[in-house]
# Entry
Amino acid sequence: MTDNNRYSHAGITATERDRMSPVWDMSQERVYHATLLNQRFNFMMILFSLVIAGALNSKQQIHLQLILTVGTIVISLFRSVIGRTQEKLDLIIADIYTDETHPATIIERRSKKGGSRRHMIGTYIPWFVTGILIIAAILAWLNILTIS
# Structure
C-alpha cells in the first residue's frame, strides 16, 4: 500500500487532502475565540494577582501608589481586550444558533433556561477586578490605604 492510499478515507487520498485548504467554519471560529477569551482572562487574573501581591509587599507608600496605578491601567487595557473578544464570541454564537441543526443550538434548546454564564468571564469579573484596583489606587493616593 502506498503512502497516498494508506491514509485514504472518504474517497480522497492523502495527497489530495493535503492539497485542499482546511475548512474554517463558525464552529472553529467559536472554539478559537472561546480559547482566546479564556487565555486572556487567565492571564489577566494572574496579572491581577501579581499587582495585589506587589501592593501588599510594597515597603513605601509611593511604591504602593505606583503599583496600584500602573496595575489599574494595565488591567483596564486587558478588560477592554477581553470585552472585545467576548463581543465577537457572542456574535459567533448568535450566528451558530441560527442553524437549527448545529449541535450547539440543539444543546442550547435542551439546556435549562436562564442563558449563558460566559459573561461572568468576559464582562463582569474583568469590570469587578478593574473596579477593585481603581478604588485601591484612589485610596492609596488619598493616603487612606497606607503601608503599616
